[in-house]
Model the fold of this input.
Amino acid sequence: MTSISGKPLVLVDGSSYLYRAFHALPPLTNAAGEATGAIYGVVNMLKRLLNDYRPDYMAVVFDAKGRTFRSDRYEQYKATRPPMPDELGVQIEPLHSIIEAMGLPLLCIPGVEADDVIGSLAREAEAGNMPVVVSTSDKDLAQIVSAHVTLVNTMSGRCLDVDGVAERFGVPPERMVDYLALVGDTVDNIPGVPGVGPKTAAKWLQAYGSMRAVIEHAGEIKGRIGEKLRAALADLPLSYELATIKCDVPLALAPRDLGIKPPDTERLRALYQHYEFKAWLAALDKDPDAETPIEAPSPAPDQRDQRDQSRAEEPRADEAGEYETILTDAQLDAWLDRLAAAELVGFDTETDDLNYARARLVGMSFAVQPGQAAYLPLAHDYPGAPPQLDFDLTLARLKPWLENPLKLKVGHHLKYDRNVLSNHGVTLAGIAHDTMLESYVLNSTQSRHDLDTLCERHLRHTNIHFDDVAGKGVKQLTFNQVALELAAPYAAEDADMTLRLHRHFWPRLKALAPLRALYQGIEMPLVPVLSRMESGGVLIDAVQLAAQSTELATRMAEVKRAAFEAAGQPFNIGSPKQIQEILYDKQGLPARRKTPKGQPSTAEDVLAELALDYPLPRLILDHRGLSKLKSTYTDKLPRQVNGRTGRVHTSYHQAVASTGRLSSSEPNLQNIPIRTAVGRRIRQAFIAPPGYAILAADYSQIELRIMAHLSGDAGLRAAFDEDKDIHRATAAEVFGVQTELVTGDQRRAAKAINFGLIYGMSAFGLARQLGIDRGAAQDYVN
Done:
């Protein structure tokens, strides 16, 4: 990097900081529910800059509200950009207040953008022989880099001087406007040349010298890309104008007017208290005159971290990728070399079934750099499908790389891919990162962690959807039937976007030491463990389940007859409409809740409340419960036995429950009832093969131990210190019996009391769960 003497003027692209902080951190709030994540992130980055550079002069520059000269020049400029999220907008004013209280000059100049203000200040400082450091992640500012102006990205640690710009973009700073005009910008709605990405733009500028020269030689450029260039010639001057940073904005302040002032500690204290930045508040109280260091400095990076930090910033997600379809031995040889040389590879499989136990491999995709990906088709068998490489031979050639733990891979939900490959005798190793889990660890309360949603949210990129290539509904094709010209871009994009998502998530995860430890120490090592559990499956006794189905049918018939007697007439016990008529019209039971159409509800929670006082709702619920056990377990489980393995294979989900617990589906093996004798009998149908036993292991009242620690309650602590059964002890106290005389049902009731009250269960909820009246439940609570 070019040597800079003296302390630099530090110019911060506040608008860039704002969005990066907002998307980098979980949705933090204070006790009042006010969003604080972006405030925290921006201020933390500012503190880091202050620590790193110790500047005397500094400015934090934000875009001002309202139109700019660019939108006046071109009505469609930024017209397609989505509006700022409300939860981000409300953080701007308090963020500005904190920055000002820190003593940092803050600038918002109407009519221009933050880039223009930064460019103007940088040029004026440069004219006065004042070194400049611009902190931003915006590549547009690369055009102002010079011998005295350097860019730094605090998120990635990447610095760009003159040589760095040429290395990163393939053109020097003075040609960056030409480059940006050719590439265009879908976020800002700068037209550019459709289909032209960074490499093509750099290649043209290296060949012809400038955009003007490219225009002059447009007739020489062959193929479809040449046609696109010629079609876009009329828009290129406008694209150039929109991409050019205005470096002569008249400003009231000169660079040497941007001195950092002493912090207003009382104002900072009030702001830190309000937004609950406790560590900063403690540091401020400890030494009011000291500049607070960043709250959570990153741990010393390991070798992989250093490699990540040394990489150039990736191209935008909306730029066209260079995707290849591998159909020949020569292409496969070349890609095997690229895979062997890559530090981290985005990896994905394509299959003919979403169920991993049934799925067969159709193809694989790889990404070695953002925008550089390939699809290897192996089993597309529709009529007219082009010849593909031999399945078995190709898989054998890839197996050493797939099974090498030193060849690092990143995928999205790699557990599925590992299971599919295991169906073909391949054990996937080198699982370094999983973007689904990165997203989940960073924000477990987020409702969706699928690839398409994450790309939309974090990369502002709309992926090709499966429906786009395979169709919808009953006519939807399996992937082996999808035409290669559609399948290849879809598959390669998945690997490419996964790699880009990882580069978005990983710096944020590294900066949060506790979450990084959770991710690397628990979530990622769990992937192969769960994969082995899923592939191994579980053995069931189908004969025993069939016998239970018969018994359940008999019991359901008995309950139905009792319900008819309680109703005074026969009715369809599975019909909400007839239940509604019997309960509310004929028996006159109180309507606890109405449906959206204004009818009395027959939902389960409503019937459970009525069942505390009336017999018929209880019988209806009993019938529903027995019917669910029969249809979900005793009838269905035998049908879910895999013909190849003879076992049932569930899916365990790491990224669903916000509490961090696993969930299970197809079939759900975590919700088999245990409170009733019928439910406990279903569990007996899960068996071990001859010579083996099933071992059940569980934490011992872990939540109550935490409660004992937090509350300091003497009774709880004594029970645990003396290794007592806490639920049995509670049951003895509640039911007034000696500990050794507590029954199993009484202990289960006490367990419901203990755990229910921790999580705020009301007397009504407890009554419903135990099937007792509310008065008795309230006594238990008391």
